[in-house]
Specification:
Blueprint lengths: L1 E7 L5 H19 L2 E6 L3 H8 L5 H9 L2 E4 L17 H12 L4 E8 L11 H4 L3 E8 L9 E5 L5 E5 L5 H18 L3 E5 L5 H17 L5 E5 H10 L6 E4 L1 H15 L8 E3 L4 E3 L18 H13 L4 H16 L2 E2 L1 H4 L7 E2 L2 H14 L15
Helix pairs in contact: 1-10, 1-13, 2-4, 6-7, 8-9, 10-11, 11-13
The protein binds 3-isopropylmalic acid and manganese (II) ion.
Amino acid sequence: MKKTIAVLEGDGIGPEIMAETIKVLNTIQNKYGHEFEFIFGDFGGMGYDKQGSPFPESTKEICDTSDTILKGPIGSPKYDSIPDLNLRPERGGVLALRKRYNTFANLRPVRLPKELLSFSPLKQSVLGKEIDLMIVRELIGGIYFGKKEQGQKENGERFALDTMEYTETQVKQIARIAFQEARKQKTVLHNIHKSNVLECSIFWNEIVNEIQEKEFPDVQVGHMLVDNVAFQLVVNPSQFKVMLMENMMGDILSDQCGGILGSLGLMPSACIGPKKAYYEPAHGSAPAIAGKNIANPYSMIGSAALMLEYSFGLKTEAEEIWNALFQIMHAGYQTPDLIHNSNEKQKQISTNEFGTMIQKTIEEKKETQNKEMEYRVLL
Ligand code: IPM
Ligand code: MN
């Protein structure tokens, strides 16, 4: 298979974890006879520094013409003082990228197989057998994209405004993705909301119920208030399998799930639109540890595995990557972010060593079992 991949390395630890990911993708390409062409584009803070924009025209062109996009984490405090918010990496880069490709479905798998449960700061008795849930987050609506304003009232008092808005189409399309995932997993769909306060949530829940009745009568829905979910995730996380939520709630609960896993470095994600998808870790660019060769590249490598499966349909290759990731972590090899939480015999490794170990594991493994994939093509 021949594919072009736009590579947006990002800021902070971005280039380091991306380098390891490309190493792994090269190994996959050699082993399976694919041809991946990587085309680098300036983005985020790097785009601003080099070309005066977090999403320069040249990068848009690269993204438009590539088969898919692999993106590292962006931002750093140094860009927080750029006066024009639309030139900051988050608003002018990430949100613009999401909008451009209408990547409405953000899938964030939260996984700790039973062998790796000791990474979690939670007690084993609380965690249950394993952690395996999927956050299905709406990504192009809600308060992130609603009307924004800052100004002064007539009496001179300053004010700020962000608006939460959802259309029927937006709720329907993300609800369908979540229902499909729940149906495939033969599990209940947890719909997360704040309908005791928000009009948007009342509307959201109505649409979710309509879709369930008309299109997914076989899937059971559990409606839960978001504040309760924040509590339940800590006291009984394994009750959740597939969780549907709007943009901002998804942002917050994603990081909480990273906390349950023991590191945000264990949070890959897929952002899928009707015509194009992009893949990124759910965490930030961790400027404090950038350039030290200690960042955990799991989330970036895992995002590449999601890319192989969702964008290219390469399930076996994706599974090879997951197996290698779990295998070397199970053998006790960990980047420093996971060392303190683990009771196992630990061997601290660098970002670079982590990538090389994944690469070797894949190279050395001769046969790939054709077992049922846990990550499925949704669109
Ligand atoms: C995420 C990030 C982004 C978000 C930022 C960088 C805009 O935190 O993907 O979770 O808030 O969506
Ligand atoms: Mn976030």
